[in-house]
Write a structure and sequence with these properties.
Chain lengths: 114, 114
């Protein structure tokens, strides 16, 4: 069965610090990969996605993620966080050609101190 | 473009009562999902519709949960009777098609069973 593991439950950073959130998945076939963000009081929004091609993908608000197939990883990065990045971040995968069902990690809560 | 609409936003019921949630997906989106998000966990798929047909309901507790998507547009999710462990946020999402597209999420309905 597919599963997604996010390494950190809660991360606290100061503004301008660099961010890396880990995500590993378990699935033997081809996958699509996503990072979703949920700002306080808002709905889940897509931050970035990887379907194929360049394994380094850039998303909104300066976020990027790198797909490393050999490590089954899709880590999220941002060189300098802002207070407005305070949110919960979810990594998700779906199996290619199997209908779009998303398997989510448990989420990482990011708190950025001004 | 209007997003995914859900109602109500909040609901408190006693155990053994019934409850229903409503979702209106983005216009033209063929695929509709219902996810359950328990506090501290990532969303988990309950049921997936393609137009008005069920694609995946393997994780739906069918003894108490039911869902329908009449005419391939709006959808309702019902719980009868509710249990304490059903307390969660119920998220509706839609996508243009299955697979290689992102899902767009609604604000969710927060259910508390007391």
């Amino acid at each position: 069965a597919q599963s997604v593991s996010q390494h950190n439950h809660h991360v606290i950073l100061s503004e301008a610090a660099s961010l890396e959130l880990g995500c590993n998945y378990s699935y033997g076939g081809t996958v699509n990969l996503f990072w979703y963000v949920q700002y306080p009081g808002q709905h889940l929004q897509l931050l970035l996605k990887y379907f194929s091609g360049d394994p380094l993908v850039k998303g909104i608000k300066g976020f990027e993620a790198e797909f490393i197939k050999s490590k089954f990883s899709f880590n999220l990065r941002k060189p300098s966080v802002q207070w407005s990045d305070t949110a919960e971040y979810f990594c998700a995968v779906n199996a290619r050609n199997q209908g779009g069902k998303l398997i989510f990690g448990q989420g990482t809560e990011l708190s950025v101190k001004p | 473009e209007a997003g995914v609409a859900q109602s109500p936003r909040y609901k408190i019921i006693e155990k053994r009562q019934s409850v229903a949630f409503w979702c209106n997906p983005i216009s033209g989106h063929a695929t509709l999902y219902w996810y359950q998000q328990i506090l501290g966990q990532g969303p988990k798929l309950l049921i997936q519709f393609q137009n008005n047909g069920v694609v995946d309901d393997s994780q739906l507790p069918k003894d108490r949960f039911s869902a329908e998507r009449l005419k391939g547009v709006d959808s309702t999710l019902k719980i009868q009777p509710a249990k304490l462990e059903d307390s969660a946020v119920y998220l509706c999402a839609s996508s243009p098609d299955r697979g290689e597209t992102e899902a767009f999420f609604g604000q969710g309905t927060r259910l508390t069973v007391v």
